[in-house]
Amino acid sequence: MMTGSMVRVGLARRCEWVLRGEIPRILRGCDVVVFPELVDGGYAALRRGAGHHRQGDRLLTSFARLTRRGGPACVAGSVLLEGTSGGTNTSCVFHRGRLVYRYDKIHLFRPAGDTRYFRRGDRIGTFRFPNSPEGLRAGVILCYDLRFPELVRAMALRGLDVLFVPARWPRERDLAWRALLRARAIENQIFVVGCNAPGREGGHSYVFGPLGEELFSSRGKAGRPFWSVRLPLRRLEESRRLHDNLRDAVLLKEVKRPRSRQKGRGTGRRRSAAG
Question: pTM for the complete prediction?
């Protein structure tokens, strides 16, 4: 498990082996294992009429069981989770057989039908990194959330050190996926772990360090179902040694907006030709 100033993260593209109660050898020494968004079939399953999950059902119980008896903690991707006022796209984090954190997707991606299937989440936060003797704080967002830097910045202000991003980000938009993962890492000086789905709905997975360094890419490794990545925790201190982005940030509420020089001109946001 976690030794010294190193964290080992496993990335898994599918969950069938979890239901069988197996732990692949490559993942046995990991501190935490991460799965993709909508881990049990993706949007294709939702279009076929896949039902809601409930806490304590077979799939979520299997994820919890994976973390018992010294097994790795688990960021269980996400599922359509039943709620009192509709389903949410929810990521559950399990440790030592218990649910220790949940996150409901806040930004719903309309082109994929999110607004049809999910109710929007309204809470953010962080949690203590499982098995961490160093007081690390972790957080989870889902796929489209990555495009909204204010969400991750709000989490960083709560002490975020490692961000997990389960996703179903199509390969044709990989340029944006990769750039945004790196940007969230650099601007908040944190580790960012992007675990993408396989198949037509997914693409590559990446891990970036707090200096923007690429620690892992699944490019050229598409045939492998699992990967293991080491996060050198000393990079957190190294990235903040010369400057601290959170300390030095000037919040918008503290900035005086300039007055327009001419009435009716220069007060609005200029639109591009594309609108």
Answer: 0.89
Q: What is the C-alpha separation between 115 and 107, in angstroms, rounded?
A: 10
Tell me the catalytic residues. 37, 105, 143
How many Å separate Cα 27 from the centre of its chain? 19
Does residue 265 have a pLDDT over 50?
no
Q: Which CATH architecture has domain 10-240?
A: 4-Layer Sandwich (3.60)
User: Each residue of 96-109: pLDDT tens digit?
Assistant: 999 999 999 999 99
Domain ranges of the chain: 10-240
pLDDT tens digits along 40-81: 999 999 999 988 999 999 999 999 999 997 789 999 999 999
Amino acid in the structure at residue 206: Y
